[in-house]
Amino acid sequence: MEDLSIKIKIADREYPMKVKLADEERVRMAGKLINEKIKSYREQFGIDDKQDLLAMVAFDCLIDKMAADETYQAIDQTVFEKVNQLNHIVSQSIL
After folding, report:
1. Which residues pair with 6 in a beta bridge?
2. CA gap 52, 76 in Å, rounded
3. Nearest by Cα to 79 from 90, 71, 64
4. What's the sign of the alpha-carbon dihedral 37, 40, 41, 42?
5. Other CB atoms within 10 A of residue 37 CB
6. Using CB atoms within 10 A of its CB, is residue 50 exposed (0-12), middle (13-18) or buried (19+)?
7. Around 75, how many Cα atoms within 13 Å sit in the side-chain half-sphere?
8. Across the chain, what does the average pLDDT equal?
9. Domain ranges in the chain?
10. Is the per-residue pLDDT at 82 higher than 80?
11. Which residues contact residue 5 at a Cβ distance below 8 angstroms, ignoring those fewer than 6 apart?
12. pLDDT-based confidence at 94, cuts 50/70/90?
């Protein structure tokens, strides 16, 4: 697969990068969402320091990821338990 050279602007600074063509839309959307969060924090808290804003966005994103990981872990555990129950039922019906 071919890489694509793009520039993503985050907090008024451009970042050149190479991405796979299939990932371009996701990367551009990530940049857009970061900028939207920066704008939201700037308006909400009146903070203009870009480093502070980026730190707040990074912290917010990590909290969201941790929450999603916990949810996926709970779902995985539930699926594992259900599969075990089904295996038990199947093995009992074969006997």
Report:
1. 17
2. 36
3. 71
4. positive
5. 17
6. middle
7. 6
8. 95
9. 3-69
10. yes
11. 16, 17, 18
12. confident
Spatial CA neighbour of 26 closest among 46, 6, 53 = 6
Q: Express each pLDDT in 35-59 by its tens digit.
A: 999 999 999 999 999 999 999 999 9
What does 60-85 look like in DSSP terms, one character per residue?
HHHHHHHHHHHHHHHHHHHHHHHHHH
Specify the residue for token string 């857009």: 32
Which two three-digit tokens encode residue 7? 């520039």
- Spatial neighbors of 11 by CB under 8 A, at least 6 apart, are 34, 35, 38, 50, 53, 54
